[in-house]
Amino acid sequence: MNTIVYGVPLSPFVRKVLLTLDRKKIDYTNIPVTPMEPPEDFLAFSPLGKIPALRDDKLAISDSSVICEYLEDRYPDPPVYPHSMIEHARARWIEEYCDTKLAEVTGPPLFFERVIKRLLLEHEPDEERVQRNLNETLPPVLTYLESQVPDDHFFNGGLSVADFAVGSNMLNARHAGFQPDAQLYPRFSAYLQRLFQHPLFAARIDADAKFLGE
Ligand SMILES: N[C@@H](CCC(=O)N[C@@H](CS)C(=O)NCC(=O)O)C(=O)O
């Protein structure tokens, strides 16, 4: 059975899984379901009703971090988690921080307002909410990431789930017209530039453009 990923690729969590599959050169089919209109049997393998979910010949599971770890165990080469105990824990922490905190400040008050509302709901964004976020809640998160990102290359030297989690969320911020100020966040800006130029991200940026009708 082919590997199937359920979830629209614009979701940062779905995108993290697709990047892991792409990195490992695993063939898959993406079924772009939204949590608002899930297929009939969706809750059977995603009991929380969230995307992404993955199904293959061995199992059906949900949650992007659980899925990425499963893919790493099943297809270890090339790795998307660092091998050293310390670097592994660090990559997992950055992944968790981005899935929780970066997603909170780049998702609902930015990407949802400026992109999803227009695309799916045909509503205008609440720019007051967007500006409040850009001025108050987003900057401390960028300051933290500025202190964490590597000076050159990526989190794993090669690429890791930490890079996929940072990049997936920041790509949605970019789709919503936001990029960090290079004067305030020089390391983070340079890191993002490297990341988005990487062929794996460049391919996702192209796929997103088609999805967004750009
Ligand atoms: N911890 C989950 C979070 C997934 C998640 O929140 N996905 C969103 C879409 S971006 C969703 O399905 N939301 C619907 C809901 O919360 O009911 C993961 O890493 O997969």
Structure description:
The protein is of the alpha+beta class and 214 residues long. It folds into two domains: 3-74, Glutaredoxin; 85-211, Glutathione S-transferase Yfyf (Class Pi), Chain A, domain 2 (Up-down Bundle). Helix content is 59%, strand content 7%. It has helices at residues 12-23, 42-45, 64-74, 85-121, 127-148, 161-175, 186-197, 199-211; strands at 3-6, 28-31, 53-55, 60-62. The structure holds glutathione. Glutathione is lined by residues 11, 13, 35, 49-52, 63-65, 99.
Topology:
Blueprint lengths: L2 E4 L5 H12 L4 E4 L10 H4 L7 E3 L4 E3 L1 H11 L10 H37 L5 H22 L12 H15 L10 H12 L1 H13 L3
The structure holds glutathione.
Glutathione (GSH) binds next to helix 3.
Entry summary:
With 214 residues, the protein is of the alpha+beta class. The chain contains eight helices and four strands; from the N terminus they run βαβαββαααααα. Residues 11, 13, 35, 49-52, 63-65, 99 line the site of glutathione.
- CATH architect. name of the largest domain: Up-down Bundle
Present as ligands are: glutathione
Which value, in Å, is the CA radius of gyration? 17 Å
Helix tally equals 8
Averaged pLDDT, please? 95
- By CATH, the topology of the largest domain is Glutathione S-transferase Yfyf (Class Pi), Chain A, domain 2
Through-space gap between termini = 33 Å
- Across the major sheet, the strand order is 2-1-3-4
Under the CATH scheme, which class of the largest domain? Mainly Alpha
Total domain units: 2
pLDDT under 50 segments (min length 5)? Answer: none
User: How many E-type strands?
Assistant: 4
Order of helices and strands: EHEHEEHHHHHH
As a percent range, the share of helical residues equals 55-70%
Biggest β-sheet strands, sense, barrel? 4 strands, mixed
**What is the percentage of strand-forming residues?**
5-15%
Outline type: globular
Q: What is the SS-derived class?
A: alpha+beta
